[in-house]
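Reopening this ticket.

The earlier resolution said the output was attached, but the attachment link was broken on my side. Pasting everything inline this time so it's all in one place.
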Amino acid sequence: MPRPSPSRLSPPAPPAGPFRGWPEGWWWALVFAVVLLAYLPALRAGFIWDDDGHVTRPDLRSLGGLWRIWFEVGATQQYYPLLHSAFWLEHVLWGDAPFGYHLANVLLHATVAGLFGRLLCRLAVPGAWLAALLFALHPVGVESVAWISEQKNTLSAVFYLLGALAYLDFARDRRGLQYAIASAWFLCALLTKTVTASLPAALLVIFWWQQGRLTWRRDVLPLLPWFALGAASGLLTAHFERVLIGAQGADFGLGALQRCLLAGHVVWFYLGKLLWPAHLVFVYPRWNIAASSPGAWLYLLAALALLGGLAWWSRRSRAPLAAALLFGGTLFPVLGFVNVFPFVFSYVADHFQYLASLPFFALIAAALEAATRRWPGALRRAGAVGLLALLGTLGYSQSDMYRDQETLFRTTIARNPDAWLAYHNLGTIYAETGRLAEAVPMAETVLRLHPNYALAENNLGDALTKLGRPREAVPHLERAVQLEPRYYLAYNNLGVALMQAGRATEGLARFATALKEHPDFPEAEHNLGLALLQLDRAAEAVPHFARAVQLKPDYAAAEIGWAIALTQAGDLDAARPHFAKAIALAPGNPDYPGTFARALLRGGQLDEAATQLEAVVRMLPDNAEAHLDLARVLRQLGRNAEANRHFQEAVRLNPALLNQRP
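Inline output:
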């Protein structure tokens, strides 16, 4: 990368390259075309892990919700109000269709690449558009582009580069309006993701690279407000990471020396993935950082030696040192000196270096331009096309693993068998889709790899309960609440397991604890009511079912529980509307009209009971017992022909019922 003269602050001519002479518009078109082609698999993908924490929740989809996004801390997973405003707008445009979100992210990534190329042209960096294309197609970027949650990366990078371009205009002309525009873009970047707080420092590095020195009045002073904004934003985000997201505790208990050693390892890891993008994984192995390990010191000492060597070389060319400072400085928030929640799983992730990779590609493209300067034009073009085709093919293959959650986590496990997060999430998918027998070994593997994980203990216990093994479930759920004493979901699940194990009185206490920790918990209110019914305390159960319905108006199970409690308390008339509401909310559930029919029979209401049993038969036409129950009621009503027809159908379905006359 040649060193421009100190006076070069006016827009230069576009630098030469293997495709010299192309107008900027053609480059933009090429960037968008190759990005869309490389990310076709991502456009066909669905939602994956953590996307539900970013795509706007139902309670935030109104104008009032938009207000909360900006002015209620904790309304969103992280306080990035501009990011979540973008998600809010996207939900208005295409609702819950994942294609729209993926298309937006792919187009944002292409925009970042285009702005990057324009910035490098503005700085007269050789191979500017080659650098933009390398960035656009490199597979390390796939995680940021194919994962909807990482729209924070692509959107914030757009604002970051717009801010850099606008500030370069200000640095040339010194106009107040240009400074205001640049500051607005920088603020937008901070409100989208605070890693962009590195922009003012990056600009100072650029000015030093251009001029060989920095002046206080011209270079540093105008950026002081930006440094203050960035510092405030970073401190606020670090606070939220600790308090709201949970980036604290034993998993983050690294000493100062360990953090320095970790930083050395992280830098080389990211540099290695950029130079040789093989074995890219959604969750990388989590290193054990020990001061007694010679390897840990080797990474740190090698990083310091490289930095020293580049400083010495800067007497000949400042470009490599500038690129290294930009790379390391942008990575600083994820080097280990500040806790970020993903460190629980791994100290590194591809999306962490999305923005930091830009100076690397600028340096590589400039170096390739210098190395191939004497090559014939056709050979240079062929080499560039071949390199880009290789990166695009790798990126295409990498983006395919993000097509759905199960594919993502199965691929992660294949590449990193110790990725406990992948087992945990895969087990959750199995449980949510009714594959409980498959969920159990997933949770057991999580606990083997990551002991003392309350969520895994809870998931294992819940799956065992649903499989009809409550006695096995109880110890795991007790362990979950021991590890997390305020884990209200685990208290609720423990209560269910105890109730199924015939220990309803103990279950009552657990449901009460769940409600103490989370008073607006309709499932716990419902389960507490069921436990009271099991203990023949129907009158006490009624208000709990009523509270569950108040908290969750479409809660069919609570409506049927309320109806049963009223029936057992001797008030069938009061129970009728709740039976009707439950049946209306779950029209395909035969248990509800069947339960209503039994209540009506106890009350002597044969006609209504027959109507409900007819509904059961319509839903379960191949159920012999349903036909037999209906035949018996019809016989009591004197409707003998209909009774005989249903009895004959019951016998046809189950000949063993022949002796059970209706």
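Reporter confirms the inline version is readable. Residues 1-16 have pLDDT under 50 and may be disordered. The chain is about 70% helix and 0% strand.
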